[in-house]
Amino acid sequence: MKTPTSLTFEDQLSLLQSRGMKVSKRDVNKLKIIGYYRIKQFAAPLANKNNSNKHTYDDYSGVNFSEVLTRYYQDKNLRIHLLHAIEKIEVALKTRLSFILGNSYGPFGYLNFSNWCDKHNYKKFEIETRQFQFKKSLLKSIKRSFINDVKDTNNQDVDGFPTIWLAVEVLTFGELVRIVEILSDKNKKKLSEMFNCTKKELISWLKCLNFVRNICAHNANVIDLQLSTKPLCRKQWKGYLYTVNGDNSRTPSNKLGIVILIIKHFVNTINKKYGWRNINKDICRLVDKSDERAHLLGFLDSNIVYELFGK
Fold first, then answer.
1. pLDDT per residue as tens digits for the range 191-214
2. Which Pfam families does UniProt cross-reference here (predicted)?
């Protein structure tokens, strides 16, 4: 096994150039800030694989360093703008979920999971286990919270738990999704109708957004994400998405495109006048009128992108 060696930034740029990438001398300044491996990560989808001496490496022939930089900066911008949209969904989810549980079971009824959860698909022991873990986590979240109302004893029961309307404010998005997942059929139906989707779509899409939110929050690459579990895709969306060979037919790819459509659906049920300008601009700059670039994001072609996000 060959021992890795330390390279100067100039040598790193030369290595990229030796593998076909078009560079200029001033690009070394960007390498000093962004780093070689991050540049390599964002260049990978544009490269071809080359096998030489039993070693596989990326061939960047035809790839310009400036294009890789564009992908890096647009990914950064898109992460910020997607987080803004997902936060809007999260706030609405907290408000609507707490309304359903508070209205039906009172301010503290949510603490007894058997009141509101799906007792047909979850056994009593599992319900009790989840309830114990939830309460334990909730008390820790209350201690860390800076929300005064959460710690006000007037808003708590005898055990120090807050009302449902305050409890949701200290829950993470992932914790909210886990609650929604085990709601009774009746409660799940109420919530899904508020978001204009089916019960199965609601669970599938929220799980997807929780995964994407974590990617955005931890500065990971979002424009090249590949979902390990494909979210449910509406029939009318299939005309917008790039498809790949499935078991018996072609199915929508598991890339960013379907995530954007899910976010648009949720946000439009909350605020039809939401400003999509930033996300639209990010997507259009990434595609840059190229069908190949549209495919990388999971969209059918560049025309569809401009139809969805404006020219």
1. 999 999 999 999 999 999 999 999
2. Abi_2
